[in-house]
Amino acid sequence: xxxxxxxxxxxxxxxxxxxxxxxxxxxxxxxxxxxxxxxxxxxxxxxxxxxxxxxxxxxxxxxxxxxxxxxxxxxxxxxxxxxxxxxxxxxxxxxxxxxxxxxxxxxxxxxxxxxxxxxxxxxxxxxxxxxxxxxxxxxxxxxxxxxxxxxxxxxxxxxxxxxxxxxxxxxxxxxxxxxxxxxxxxxxxxxxxxxxxxxxxxxxxxxxxxxxxxxxxxxxxxxxxxxxxxxxxxxxxxxxxxxxxxxxxxxxxxxxxxxxxxxxxxxxxxxxxxxxxxxxxxxxxxxxxxxxxxxxxxxxxxxxxxxxxxxxxxxxxxxxxxxxxxxxxxxxxxxxxxxxxxxxxxxxxxxxxxxxxxxxxxxxxxxxxxxxxxxxxxxxxxxxxxxxxxxxxxxxxxxxxxxxxxxxxxxxxxxxxxxxxxxxxxxxxxxxxxxxxxxxxxxxxxxxxxxxxxxxxxxxxxxxxxxxxxxxxxxxxxxxxxxxxxxxxxxxxxxxxxxxxxxxxxxxxxxxxxxxxxxxxxxxxxxxxxxxxxxxxxxxxxxxxxxxxxxxxxxxxxxxxxxxxxxxxxxxxxxxxxxxxxxxxxxxxxxxxxxxxxxxxxxxxxxxxxxxxxxxxxxxxxxxxxxxxxxxxxxxxxxxxxxxxxxxxxxxx
Length: 653
What we know:
By secondary structure, the protein is α+β, with helices and mostly antiparallel strands. It has helices at residues 111-132, 141-158, 163-196, 215-223, 279-286, 289-292, 362-370, 393-396, 402-422, 434-441, 466-478, 513-539, 541-546, 548-556, 584-598, 619-641; strands at residues 14-18, 21-25, 31-32, 40-43, 96-98, 106-109, 161-162, 210-212, 228-233, 249-250, 261-262, 265-266, 271-275, 495-498, 501-504. Helix 4 (215-223) links the parallel strand 8 (210-212) and strand 9. The model is unreliable at 291-309, 311-343 and 446-457 (pLDDT under 50).
């Protein structure tokens, strides 16, 4: 008979001493080191994972909220070529496919590695769908995790990232898979055993298990076949405890704890939390990268849920000093009268005359003309970022000199992959104002036209050089990634890339009309997508707080494609599509989603509250809805941002 068959929950198949603690294990032959009481940084390491405090690669204290952590698969149980080995795959530089002709080191994950991660998605998607089929259509939070996993893999496939960011995005996808997989094992296997009280002497050694100092929980986990380490001080060890074998503590020697480096330069990831192990630590490890980049580690995250059984009770709950908005910033009352800013001298309510801009769309054009532009109607109850996430299309075409126009367009195309790749997960703290965009777009040729110091200029004179100013402007936008550029952003005799097409820099002094219209059309589209998202996050903040994944799905469903709001590498569309489709049947699904999104905003017109159906969707109804929805959007945007929105344009044919 196996020794574990006659051991009870409080006995020891293996026992080890860690400082003043006695750790017993009734159903496994090893005792891992318990990392819990020391304050640790929750910070991604060189492999994109979170070291010894990472619940996805080392056992942690049992937590009543994250109870499925006990069922996380252990890496050692699924070596290559098991299908689950992809859950612990770490990308190497050879798996990083850089974008040709780009000045920044950005690229995508190799297609065979993406396929490996997609195989994990297929496994859990089928398992969740089979489980939901017996739950009468209930929508659980785990369904949103599947959606997030699908979106994360699509991001790795389609979006340009630096290798530094790609590592953590792969980790996000793997964490999502492990969380979904462990949740299904919990609800289908472990939880029913605990609830029924019908135990098993067979331990599932493929599960991560947990530490606990509660005797009742130790007994429940032991009876359910979960690896469990019972933590006590010597004073609580009974004299009649059965001990099969004393062992040495197992240390996490194969877990990476070094910081990420590029060449000889250490480039650590942000610290997203600091504290002892337990609930808060697990909470932050589970956060996705895009949601934690700028999170202040000194602010406690309030939670009504109980923490780990090892947590030290506090006399008072910690909370942020002010309520945060859905966009991550604290709401701030602002009753100052709106005044036009210096950079707004151009009439932004209409397109300038230019052969390089795509045709406008009738309803949007009319909405801009008829909007009530009285400054007294501007109302900014929140600290809304009034910058531009992407350069205004008209600003890109602002220079009159061919050399400057060439520099503006070439600079944007050279930096476009990196900017698009990080616009969601790691944007600047504030979106650039038009003047910063001008400084940046005009910086591309600065160092190229700069040779020796001009005659009469004192070389000892203090002050930044043109090259230093260029770097400063670029650092404002791109942070440390600017240090990875190889010389100038582009060469006059070289080329830049747009949607798979190589574009000669020399040709941009007199740019091809069709190409330039496509570039500006994309900027109109991107500007509209992200401004719509930002406005919705303020006006529907409660819905974003209650169901962020569902709200994001609704937003993305307004636009075609798998990559969310961005289409940076797909083939350029050859006809108007989605919400600007030329047919009623093609238009309806996307217009209905747009209609559904903004009908949740305050003061939505009655026409937008009534759902659209194929039976009632005629040409007249289409015109009425489009007229109403565009006018309402433009007026609402002006009311909250104090400027006209970027609106979509017709695809240049």
